[in-house]
Amino acid sequence: MTASGANPTPALLVIDMQNTLVAMAHRASATVAAIAGLQARARAAGAPVAFAQQEDEELEPGTDGCRIVSGLAPAAGDTVVPKAAPDSFLGTELDAVLRARGVTEVVVTGFATEICVESTARQALSLGYDVVLVADGHTTSVRPAAPGRYAAPEASVAHHNEIYRNLRFPGRRVRVLPAAEVDFGQGSPRMYGAPSAVSRSRGCTTD
Hints:
- The chain is an alpha/beta fold.
- 28% of the residues lie in helices and 18% in strands.
- The protein is built from five helices and six strands.
- Strands 3-2-1-4-5-6 form a six-stranded parallel β-sheet, sandwiched between helices.
- Helix 5 links the parallel strand 5 and strand 6.
- It is globular and about 50 Å long.
């Protein structure tokens, strides 16, 4: 299904930008602003916008903490997919929804860089999608002040951006672009109200 060598049909994927998680995120406001700009451009171009939304014992459906932050509220025709694992495709409808929309390239944003963003981007490649990792559109948690083995958040984001700049995946195109350079011009037409294009989580979508 790869779009390598041809004009891609992109979709924007927003991973786990939920109140509890964004509250602990590095550069939270800047990341939300970058993703919000991508959302506006994707919708204007008719490109699909999909949200992956973590639900677990710490992010209970229906609670304020589980909800997607208000600055990134899903719009009519967007897809919201509940998930229980770091891989946004595992046990969810995400792949089926993207294929139904003719998507060949996934523009990856969200939280957290080393966990859900990384797991989802790699799985997208394994499933046959081209990938754009938005350099300023993903982030991770602020680290505790005490010394530890975690990389500093800015170092972790930079590290993963560099990995994806140099990642070679057979038959796929992998790019790292700042939000300002992401082009949704080849987006597929939006299908408002189509059952295959809309999946709502259980009561914890937005503020």
